[in-house]
Amino acid sequence: MPGDLAAFLKAVGGVRDYTRQRGLAGDWLRYWHGQGRALDALADLEQHYQTRKLRSWLDETLDAAFEVSLQVEGRTLAWRWLVRAHVAQYGWQRFYTSAETNEARMRKVAQVYPDKWRDFIRETAHSAIGPRGRDESIVFGHSRLVTFLVEVGQASLATDFTLAMSQVFAAELTAQPITTPAWAR
């Protein structure tokens, strides 16, 4: 029940089927939402998020937390869950989050927060590992950034970015001792 997320997580930790384990915390949250206790469940998840490092399978609950929060708390408070989901699941990196999950999240930004697309980039372009600090690197995948820009209606900026990245790539190659292979002559 809400207020006892730690006990639930301990029980779920015993589930050895990783695929099944990944959805259980989201099921827990949606169950309490259906029981009219969504605010309590979100508060419990918030406390857990603030005091413990989330496990990767629990990170996937952050998308469900966004959906539930959007329904019961509104768009302003739901924003934090969307940002957390993207950071925790390495949303800018195509090797960590599925294209389907990532594109669904990008559509949510475009639909619910069309005026906050710059904020989304700024708040999510950092590593999920370690505290945010002034020495932290910017982390995002170029292809996902282009997809995001198109999704939020910034196709011209996506085009400009793609052109600039190709020019940088070409410039970096000029210093490499790359010869034409025999088969390409």
**Mean pLDDT over the full residue set:** 86
Strand content: under 5%
Radius of gyration: 20 Å
- Overall number of structural domains: 1
The rough form would be described as elongated
Number of helices: 10
List the helices and strands and how they pair.
Blueprint: H1 5-13, H2 18-34, H3 38-51, H4 56-59, H5 61-72, H6 75-88, H7 99-112, H8 117-124, H9 142-151, H10 155-174
Provide a descriptive summary of the structure in words.
This protein has 185 residues and is mostly helical. It has one domain: Serine Threonine Protein Phosphatase 5, Tetratricopeptide repeat (Alpha Horseshoe), CATH 1.25.40. 66% of the residues lie in helices and 0% in strands. It is built from ten helices and no strands. The chain has helices at residues 5-13, 18-34, 38-51, 56-59, 61-72, 75-88, 99-112, 117-124, 142-151, 155-174. Helix 2 (18-34) packs across helix 3 (38-51) and helix 9 (142-151) packs antiparallel against helix 10. The longest helix is centred in the C-terminal third of the chain and has 20 residues, at 155-174. The radius of gyration is 20 Å and the shape is elongated. It starts with a helix and ends in an 11-residue tail after the last helix.
Question: Quick recap of the structure?
Answer:
With 185 residues, the chain is mainly α. Helices cover 66% and strands 0% of the residues.
